[in-house]
Design a protein that fits this description.
The structure holds two protein chains of two kinds. By secondary structure, chain A is mainly beta. Chain A has helices spanning 2-11, 214-222, 226-229, and strands at 17-21, 32-39, 46-51, 68-73, 78-80, 82-85, 88-90, 102-109, 112-119, 126-133, 148-155, 163-170, 173-181, 189-196, 204-212, 245-259. Chain A folds into two domains: 32-119, Sandwich (Immunoglobulin-like); 126-235 and 252-259, Immunoglobulin-like, CATH 2.60.40. Chain A is 9% helix and 44% strand. Chain A is globular, with a radius of gyration of 22 Å. Chain B contains five helices and 51 strands. The N and C termini of chain B lie far apart (63 Å). Classes of the chains: A mainly beta, B mainly beta. At the A-B interface, helix 1, strand 1, helix 2, helix 3 and strand 16 of A face helix 4, helix 5, strand 44, strand 45 and strand 49 of B.
Chain lengths: 262, 760
């Protein structure tokens, strides 16, 4: 036992530690950031335009006013978006994307034009959502802490490349989103577990399953933090041209809600 | 005219071995007192051959750390002389006087070569109680660790897959355990390691940057011996002995770590609460086995093998096992006292097996089956030829993926044949000028069966063709000239120059900054061209104070073609079209290496300094301009000091300093979906903070007799507790969401360790 205590004493030193450091970082000129999202649900859809700042600046991102924003589709429809407030441009409330159509957003700021295309895939229904208790293992799980998981099952359509973004809401508040590709899973029943710490009985859980196109999936995939740590890092792959940051996502969505009962 | 009066020449040949255990003394030298400058060095099997005019000579055999031995010979016919040398016992305060010069540093042609004997470094401070030869070589100039505590290394600016790691001639594809914190080499089983930094002679080939040639011990052919060590997280045991006394021997070494047993104990005692630790598996074990037997004076066979396995897992959720297995069967044959031959059959395997619960498993494997034939012809006292061929069949199974226990998908297997023929000549032109030059001709053929694709530049498939079994898909032939020259300025100093071309046909795809067993080996193909490096080097070598100190300085420039880069967000795992995810470019590396070593006495050690740069240029990256590779480090300093205080105690210290790796930090930030994202401009244009660390070690010899030996080894890693950056992450300040901050993670603050070693 004495020897064991000795080993224990030594082990304490192994624990890694973290601290905040001051680094001299590069600076960059302000970059245009465009985030556009339109769905197959009727309602107002939004395109936001802002600018980047230097790392040492506060998290205040200049919103871009006075831009011209156009939305069109490959069926010949055109629309000009209206500036709701600085940097936020909206469609008409009757706008509804159609699955199978390719949408094009065109943004003109300071004489520079930025264009992105995105195609709305066919929607995929969620088969079931249920709450599981306690997967008491895995990184970060703590003994005695009964965590709940949200389990989602849906069937991937056969022979089509599918890409998904799954978003979970607790009592209407967005929590997390995960992207899924059907690479290796084509045509299968896909099950996913989402771990959420703060679920209690009576909570309303909603899962939104967005079907996104390949370009948008690539954006989400390459915008993870891993990319900064790779040996040849780069900015996320945007579907906008002219080096605009951000993305334009035309998607279809299905939802399923449950109430946590036990 | 002269030939009419020419004296007859005869050959002295034999073996040089250790008296106590019969181990071959690789590189031991034989010199002739009456003919200064004439001599020979023992090859990897301890064999030497020296042809001299008839006469009476005093021949002495020498090896560092051993007392030299002299025999008088009446050379009137060719003869065999075997030497057995005893380790010199170093009394404190006594100056060991050796009658011979240990001046290979100045006289040899070889450049960019570093040799370490495991005995020479036995007192160096260790990490987690494990002596590790791959970490020790990182203290030499031009060889740098890939990261904190890592056994992975880069040589002269090359990538870590550009090092050929050989264990008794078999390629070791993944030389690390526990994600790099330990190497696969159990130092109890290892005799010595030689690193050639790109200027190797024509007998080696296959990687751009270096060859790390690791030789296992042969085993004691005099008596049975047992040795081992018990440490905090690992233990090891070695048994060796004669098969038939003085004719053959065997050695078996095994070790096992038990870090997980400790973390589990802490969990059971409620000291650590993270349940991960209860379910976590994290260990490795390995075995080294070797046997040799002398059939007669002319024939000897060796069988050596390695098997190791890592096991990392989290309960039933996730598990990964990986490991190497190698085997070599060798036959030494003496055609005459001047022609030495070795024939090797070589097998190597690396595989991993991943389980993600019941839903998915992946098996991946790379295998080599090889035949190698080498000849050494000692044609005269000034001329030695080495020639031979090798043929290796590579089989790569990138992944067999099983989903939900039944549905199996297989990524296309790759088969390739790699052949080489070489000749190398070592020749002493004059007393002052000698050279070694040679040629290596290699061919690499990628073969069917399978479907092979071509791609458009955006990565989509352009075309595909089917190939039958053994049908050639693509063949590359390369001629690799090698040469090194030595011009002696005087008895104590020389100038050297060398040139070498190396090619590489197996490439490791690794886009992360750490060692990962899942990194994928791919062969050269219709899309991937062989990597080619041309390296020139110049050096000045000097020995000081009767060879007690040696100094070397080298400068090198290396141009690298067909280097592999990665497209943005490249998908390297589980991807049948992985060749569509990579980019090709050029690299260049250059530097200055200084090395100063004290070899003898109670106080030994060295100082090494490297000033270097390594850069790459890839179409579409960094506006097509050169940018630093991640392993680029401007300055790199290592200081090693070992001191024998008395018979009981010896102490040691190492200190390292190097410029931080080239990394990419944000040059700006922006907001997407209420999250702060980081904007980057040019790749690898930032630096990690400089790294420095001191390690201390002490060995207490509790008991040392002829029969039994026991000692304690104490080490402290990072003794002055410097916070070295393992990684730096960027995040929103948890206390003030309007700000962002950089957070540095330090992996090892200070790591003390103690190991008990025994031998009887």
């Amino acid at each position: 036992m004495k020897a064991f205590t000795c080993i224990l004493g030594l082990s304490v030193f192994f624990v890694s530690c973290q601290k905040v450091v001051n680094l001299k970082l590069n600076t960059s000129s302000s970059q245009i950031v465009i985030v556009g999202k339109i769905s197959d649900q009727m309602g107002v859809d939004t395109v936001s335009i802002s600018k980047s700042v230097n790392f040492s600046d506060p998290n205040v991102f200049p919103q871009v006013s006075g831009a011209k924003v156009y939305l069109s589709d490959n069926a010949g429809n055109n629309d000009t978006l209206k500036e709701l407030k600085a940097g936020t441009y909206i469609t008409k409330p009757t706008f509804k994307g159609i699955a199978g159509r390719t949408y094009t957003v065109t943004v003109i700021v300071d004489g520079q034009t930025y264009v992105a295309h995105s195609t709305i895939p066919q929607a995929v229904a969620i088969d079931s959502v249920y709450i599981g208790t306690d997967i008491n293992e895995g990184f970060g799980a703590v003994r005695g802490n009964k965590e709940k998981t949200i389990n989602v099952i849906f069937k991937d359509p056969v022979d089509i490349l599918n890409f998904y973004q799954m978003v979970d809401f607790i009592n209407g508040v967005e929590q997390n989103s995960n992207i899924i590709s059907d690479h290796l899973l084509d045509g299968q029943s896909i099950a996913r577990s989402i771990k959420e710490k703060n679920i209690v009985v009576g909570d309303s859980i909603t899962i939104a399953l967005e079907c996104i196109d390949n370009g948008v999936y690539e954006y989400f995939r390459t915008s993870g933090r891993d990319n900064l740590e790779s040996s040849m890092p780069a900015n996320p792959v945007s579907n906008f041209n002219n080096n605009a940051l951000g993305y334009f996502n035309a998607y279809s969505v299905t939802r399923k809600s449950i109430v946590v009962s036990k | 005219m002269q030939s009419a009066f020419a004296q007859q020449h005869f050959t002295i040949s034999g073996y040089i071995r250790d008296t106590k255990n019969g181990e071959d003394l690789i590189g031991a030298t034989v010199i002739v007192k009456e003919l200064p400058g004439k001599g020979a060095a023992a090859n990897t099997y301890g064999f030497f051959s020296l042809t001299l005019p008839a006469g009476t000579y005093h021949i002495s055999a020498n090896f560092i750390g051993y007392a030299s031995q002299t025999q008088q010979v009446e050379l009137n016919k060719s003869m065999k002389i075997d030497f057995s040398l005893s380790e010199s016992v170093n009394e404190v305060g006594e100056v060991v006087v050796t009658s011979t010069r240990k001046d290979e540093n100045v006289t040899g042609t070889q450049m960019g070569e570093q040799k370490l004997d495991t005995k020479e470094i036995k007192n160096i401070p260790v990490f987690f109680g494990e002596r590790d030869i791959l970490k020790t070589i990182q203290l030499l100039p031009g060889i740098k660790p890939v990261g904190e505590g890592s056994s992975g290394f880069t040589v002269r600016g090359g990538a870590s897959d550009q090092n050929l790691v050989l264990l008794d001639e078999a390629t070791v594809y993944n030389a690390s355990h526990l994600l790099g914190f330990f190497s696969v080499f159990n130092s109890d089983a290892i005799k010595e390691v030689t690193v050639y930094k790109g200027n190797e002679s024509a007998e080696f080939g296959g990687r751009l940057s270096s060859v790390v040639d690791v030789k296992m011990n042969d085993g004691n052919d005099k008596k049975i011996g047992v040795s081992g060590g018990i440490g905090l997280i690992s233990s090891r045991l070695t048994v060796e002995g004669p098969i038939v006394k003085d004719k053959g021997s065997f050695i078996i070494s095994a070790r096992r770590t038990y870090a997980d047993a400790i973390t589990q104990g802490l969990y059971n005692l409620h000291i650590l609460r993270d349940t991960m630790l209860n379910k976590a598996k994290l260990y490795f074990y390995d075995f080294n086995v070797k046997a040799n037997y002398k059939l007669d004076d002319k024939n000897r066979i060796f069988l050596s093998g390695y098997f190791g396995q890592d096991d990392l897992g989290l309960g039933s959720m996730f598990g990964i096992k990986w490991g190497n297995a190698t085997g070599t069967l060798r036959w030494n044959h003496l055609f005459s006292d001047r022609v030495f031959s070795n024939t090797s059959l070589v097998f190597s395997n690396f595989d991993y097996n991943i389980n993600a619960g019941n839903s998915m498993s992946i098996i991946s494997r790379i295998q080599d089956y090889g035949l190698k034939q080498d000849y050494q012809f000692y044609s005269s006292d000034v001329s030695t030829f080495k020639y031979g061929f090798s043929s290796i069949y590579h089989r790569i199974i990138p992944g067999i993926i099983t989903l939900n226990g039944s549905d199996t998908r297989t990524l296309d297997n790759k088969n390739a044949l790699e052949n080489a023929v070489y000749i190398s000549h070592k020749y002493t032109f004059t007393d002052r000028f000698n050279a070694e030059y040679g040629l290596r001709l290699t061919s690499f053929t990628l073969m069917g069966p399978g479907t092979f694709y071509t791609y458009y530049s955006d990565g989509t498939i352009e075309d595909s063709s089917q190939y039958k079994k053994l049908q050639s898909v693509k063949t590359y032939v390369n001629l690799e000239p090698r040469a090194s020259f030595n011009y002696k300025l005087n008895e104590v100093s020389s100038l050297k120059a060398s040139y070498a071309r190396n090619t590489q046909n197996l490439h490791l795809l690794s886009n992360s900054t750490s060692i990962n067993p899942r990194d994928l080996w791919i062969p050269s193909s219709n899309n991937v061209k062989p990597e080619i490096a041309d390296q020139v080097a110049f050096g000045y070598f000097r020995n000081i104070d009767d060879n007690k100190f040696e100094f070397s300085s080298e400068i090198y420039y290396k141009n690298m073609q067909n280097q592999i880069g990665y497209k943005n967000g490249a998908v390297l795992n589980n991807n049948n079209n992985v060749e569509s995810q990579i980019l090709f470019g050029n690299g260049r590396a250059y530097g200055l290496e200084l090395f100063f070593k004290k070899k003898t006495g109670n106080f030994t050690g060295w100082i090494s300094y490297t000033l270097s740069r390594t850069e790459g240029k890839f179409a579409g990256l960094n506006n097509d301009k050169y940018f630093p590779f991640k392993q680029d480090r401007t300055h790199d300093i290592s200081v090693v000091a070992m001191y024998d205080i008395n018979k009981k105690w010896s102490v040691s210290a190492t200190w390292v300093y190097y410029t931080g790796n080239a990394v990419t930090f944000p040059a700006g930030k922006y907001q997407v979906d209420d999250q702060v994202k980081y904007y980057i401009t040019s790749p690898n244009s930032n630096r990690m903070p400089p790294y420095h660390r001191m390690d201390l070690g002490a060995t207490y010899m509790r008991k040392k007799t002829d029969k039994i030996e026991s000692s304690w080894t104490f080490s402290i890693y990072n003794a002055y507790m410097h916070d070295n950056a393992y990684s730096i992450n960027f995040q929103t300040d948890p206390l003030d969401p309007t700000k962002t901050q950089a957070v540095q993670t330090t992996l090892f603050k200070i790591v003390p360790s103690v190991t008990y070693n025994f031998k009887f």
